């Protein structure tokens, strides 16, 4: 350059530098006219090294920038061969500390790009990187200059990115570089003319920049993403998984413009994915339809032509055309059914990668901002913003059920882990969206093929568990884990209609079922089981409804799962929600429906073990659980199994409480009316067997055994039991149970018994039983109630209290005579005595242990030990938990004495005499009896 031009470009005044740039432009134009490219290259080299790279001379840098712009304008179309030297120094000035240098760099690049146009595209990544940083510049003038440059580059990209080929890239050079061979699938025309803009090389830069948090940079990135997606030939949606996670994070930006622009960009991508899926589905259906028509035509041709040579040739020709070896299908040529190419039919969208990215955003706020270990959640993020992110992710997932249902199956367990908690979201919109996704998931699973119809589901072998205590060990837990789910064949003798329907509506199967049935049942069940710990009731209910559906659909697959589902279901019975307990009981009943005896027994053993360890559950929900199981399963099978287990139970205290609860349900529950009828038919083999099975277990509770004999009309056996009662310790709890029984005698359940009082000759021992019961009671309201009932019968009944010889003809032959000898009554009485003696010995041993420990405590503490002893001895081991069970049965012994008629259902009412009332009736006469 001439010395005057150098001096002008180095001047501190802008006008002087501008005059120098105009002189430089004239010089370069003359060189171009004379084809003196060597001098042009020397001038550009001097502008770069002596001016633009002069870091410590800001005026020289400004002069170099305006000089490079002037040289580019002078070069015109010839600027392409010099852009490799011109662009780098200009881009270096974008990061200068001086704001004026950054501004002039934007101005210089604007002029260069305006002249170069499409030739600037090979430098797009560098320009884009520089502009992304200037978008957040603190100087307003620099930001405005960068915005002008950004608009120009966007216009160039929108116009030329998909098709522009640099003039420096000749077809001959391209073919040489490609090194094509005859086996390569790449077409020569594609390799000969590569475009100047390369989207694959740009995506890594976008993936790196997408994690910024500056709102201005985010708006810049979203605008470029929207622009590139609007260019049809680029197909940015193919690379969507590379930056979708970062784009979703933009929704958390507190700036409204960023949120709005991001939402629009995401909606555009989702619409495009749907369009591509519809196009591919339509082409696939068209091809199948055409193939079917060809097959039918070939069949007709074969039938018409017979075995002639012409017919065979025609058939072979059509087969060749159909297979694609003769005439390639239209889709393989990139054409539609009518021969035209449809935009989007060859675009590949990785649906599974997109789903991988979406799943963490389904859960707010825990998993929204930890994608790839990156935590970018702004402080004080508004709740509405978090809700918007979760809602957007739910809508995307819902759309994928229409786009690619077959790709969703591997994600079902993870989707359930995120969607089910969202069902209980405090926002109505999010709850609604989560319910839609849940419904779509149900429809997807129901569209899968079921287990083979008629193929029996064989329960896996399990260890024999003779008593409830053996289940406490780890072996029991392992056995139950293997037995977590069972088959879905039937529920004993009940029909499936007895199971209440699930409240959540299950949608009909999808009209286009997915191609694969590869659902991971084990992972799905584990994900649902974890939802039992969710704090929201609705989530737990839906999780149980899912398990119900899965077990109905694929009982064999569910049974094969070896995990802790079954123990978790038992634990869920302690849930405070009645809806959860009801669903849980439905599932447990469904699992045990006509299961193997070992499996069913194991279920009953574990249920009793749960009641034993959780007495509050037995008190609050014990009757509900027993009654619900009796509705859904065979009640006789339940009572027989529980009776066999309780008979061998070493914990006589718990056995007594449990027998009392079972007996209360047996006497009052409407669901057990058939069992009560069976007990009254002791003239049959089944009735006798059932009575004996219950009697041997009911021996743990004296009053329950007596009431069982009354229900079975075994009045002579009941009378014999009363004689043994005289040898028992008459405790408050026993009197409370007798009081409750008296109340129940006035209920509709014992109507037959009251009517039998009118036939003393046929039922002489009935009078003896009732008068014996009257003698056990203190003179309380229950005593008066029973006395009034007996007095209301004709006085002639008193003459038949003792059996006479003539009454033998009226006795039922199935009680203690004739065929009734099949029941060994004497052995049953001996069984009753032995069980009651065992209970008395255990109680005495426990009392002695308590006294010993209390005495040792008083000796250690010195004075005041007597008070401690009294406080320890007052609540006995039997009375306290038994009282709790009595409360569950309806007597409310420790709190208040509720009188009145008998309660209904499950022993819940009872209206028994409370301790307070019973004590008040005798307080004045028996002050010395400390137990009353």
TrEMBL record:
Biased composition (Basic residues): 920-932
Compositionally biased tracts (Polar residues): 292-305, 845-859
One cellular-component annotation, GO: PAS complex
Compositional bias of kind Basic and acidic residues: 310-320, 474-493
Superkingdom, natural source: Eukaryota
Compositional bias (Pro residues): 498-514
Protein name according to UniProt: ARM repeat-containing protein
SUPFAM superfamilies: ARM repeat
The keyword Repeat appears for this protein: yes
GO BP terms in the entry: phosphatidylinositol biosynthetic process
Gene3D superfamilies: Leucine-rich Repeat Variant
Keywords (A to Z) from UniProt: Membrane, Repeat
HEAT repeats by residue range: 86-121
UniProt family annotation: Belongs to the VAC14 family.
Subcellular location, record wording: Endomembrane system
InterPro entries in alphabetical order: ARM-like, ARM-type_fold, HEAT_type_2, Vac14, VAC14_Fig4p-bd
Sequence ranges of Low complexity compositional bias: 878-896
Gly residues bias (residue ranges): 897-915
Source organism: Choiromyces venosus 120613-1
Claim: Calcium is one of the keywords in the record: no
Main location: membrane
Residue ranges occupied by any Vacuolar protein 14 C-terminal Fig4-binding domain in the UniProt entry: 616-793
């Amino acid at each position: 350059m001439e010395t005057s031009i150098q001096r002008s470009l180095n001047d501190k005044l802008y006008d002087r530098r501008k005059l120098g740039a105009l002189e430089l432009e004239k010089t370069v134009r003359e060189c171009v006219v004379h084809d003196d490219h060597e001098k042009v290259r020397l001038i550009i080299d001097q502008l770069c090294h002596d001016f633009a790279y002069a870091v410590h001379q800001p005026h020289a840098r400004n002069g170099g920038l305006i000089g490079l712009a002037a040289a580019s304008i002078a070069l015109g179309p010839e600027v392409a061969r010099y852009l490799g030297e011109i662009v780098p120094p200009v881009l270096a000035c974008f990061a200068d500390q001086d704001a004026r240098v950054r501004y002039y760099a934007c101005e210089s690049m604007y002029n260069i790009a305006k002249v170069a146009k499409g030739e600037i595209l090979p430098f797009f990544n560098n320009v884009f990187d520089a502009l992304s940083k200037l978008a957040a510049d603190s100087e307003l003038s620099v930001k405005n200059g960068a915005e002008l440059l950004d608009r120009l580059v966007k216009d160039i990209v929108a116009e030329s990115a998909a098709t522009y080929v640099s003039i420096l890239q000749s077809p001959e050079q391209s073919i040489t570089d490609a090194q094509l061979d005859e086996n390569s699938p790449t077409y020569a025309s594609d390799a000969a003319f590569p475009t100047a803009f390369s989207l694959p090389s740009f995506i890594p830069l976008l993936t790196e920049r997408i994690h910024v948090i500056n709102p201005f940079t985010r708006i810049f990135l979203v605008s470029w993403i929207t622009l590139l997606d609007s260019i049809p030939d680029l197909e940015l949606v193919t690379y969507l998984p590379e930056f979708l996670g970062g784009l979703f994070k933009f929704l958390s930006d507190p700036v409204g413009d960023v949120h709005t622009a991001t939402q629009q960009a995401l909606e555009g991508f989702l619409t495009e994915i749907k369009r591509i899926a519809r196009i591919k589905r339509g082409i696939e259906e068209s091809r199948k339809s055409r193939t079917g028509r060809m097959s039918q035509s070939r069949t007709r041709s074969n039938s018409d032509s017979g075995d002639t040579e012409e017919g065979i040739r025609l058939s072979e020709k059509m087969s060749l055309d159909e297979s694609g070896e003769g005439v390639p299908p239209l889709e393989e040529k990139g054409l539609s059914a009518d021969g035209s190419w449809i935009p989007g039919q060859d675009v590949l969208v990785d649906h599974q990668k997109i789903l991988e990215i979406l799943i963490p955003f389904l859960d707010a706020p825990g998993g929204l901002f930890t994608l790839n270990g990156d935590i970018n959640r702004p402080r004080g993020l508004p709740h509405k913003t978090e809700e918007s992110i979760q809602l957007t992710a739910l809508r995307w997932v819902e759309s994928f059920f229409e786009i690619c249902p077959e790709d969703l199956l591997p994600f079902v367990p993870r989707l359930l882990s995120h969607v089910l908690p969202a069902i209980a979201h405090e926002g109505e919109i999010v709850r609604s969206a989560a319910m839609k996704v849940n419904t779509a998931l149900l429809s997807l699973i129901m569209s899968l093929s079921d287990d083979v119809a008629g193929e029996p589901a064989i329960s896996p072998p399990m260890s024999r568990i003779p008593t409830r205590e053996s289940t406490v060990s780890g072996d029991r837990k392992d056995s139950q884990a293997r037995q977590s789910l069972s088959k879905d064949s039937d529920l004993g003798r009940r029909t499936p209609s007895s199971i209440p329907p699930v409240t959540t509506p299950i949608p009909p199967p999808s009209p286009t079922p997915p191609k694969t049935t590869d659902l991971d049942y084990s992972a799905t069940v584990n994900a649902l089981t974890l939802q039992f710990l969710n704090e929201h009731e609705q989530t737990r209910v839906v999780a149980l409804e899912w398990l119900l559906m899965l077990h109905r659909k694929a009982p064999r697959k569910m049974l094969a799962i070896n995990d802790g589902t079954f123990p978790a279901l038992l634990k869920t019975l302690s849930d405070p929600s009645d809806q959860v307990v009801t669903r849980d009981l439905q599932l447990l009943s469904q699992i045990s429906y006509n299961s193997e005896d070992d499996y069913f027994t194991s279920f009953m053993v574990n249920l009793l073990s749960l009641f034993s360890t959780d007495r509050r559950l037995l008190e609050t929900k014990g009757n509900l659980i027993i009654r619900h199981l009796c509705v859904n399963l065979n009640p006789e099978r339940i009572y027989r199994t529980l009776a066999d287990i309780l008979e061998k139970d070493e914990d006589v205290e718990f056995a007594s409480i449990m027998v009392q609860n079972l007996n209360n349900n047996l006497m009052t529950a409407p669901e057990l009316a058939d069992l009560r009828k069976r007990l009254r038919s002791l003239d049959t083999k089944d009735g006798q067997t059932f009575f004996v099975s219950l009697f041997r277990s009911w021996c743990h509770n004296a009053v329950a055994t007596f009431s069982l004999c009354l229900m079975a009309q075994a009045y002579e056996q009941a009378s014999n039991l009363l004689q043994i009662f005289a040898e028992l310790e008459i405790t408050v709890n026993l009197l409370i149970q007798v009081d409750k029984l008296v109340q129940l005698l006035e209920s509709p359940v014992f109507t037959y018994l009251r009517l039998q009082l009118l036939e003393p000759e046929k039922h002489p021992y009935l009078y003896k039983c009732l008068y014996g019961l009257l003698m056990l009671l203190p003179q309380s309201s229950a005593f008066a109630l029973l006395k009034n009932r007996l007095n209301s019968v004709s006085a002639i009944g008193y003459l038949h209290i003792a059996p006479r010889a003539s009454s033998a003809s009226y006795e039922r032959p199935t009680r203690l005579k004739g065929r009734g000898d099949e029941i060994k009554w004497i052995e049953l009485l001996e069984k009753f005595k032995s069980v009651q003696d065992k209970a008395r010995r255990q109680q005495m041993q426990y009392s002695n242990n308590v006294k010993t420990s209390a005495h040792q405590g008083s000796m250690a503490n010195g004075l005041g030990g007597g008070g401690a002893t009294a406080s320890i001895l007052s609540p006995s081991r039997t009375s306290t938990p038994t009282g709790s069970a009595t409360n569950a049965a309806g007597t409310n012994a420790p709190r208040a004495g509720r009188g009145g008629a008998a309660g209904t259902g499950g022993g819940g009412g009872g209206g028994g005499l409370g301790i307070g009332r019973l004590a008040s009736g005798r307080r004045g006469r028996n002050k010395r009896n400390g137990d009353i």
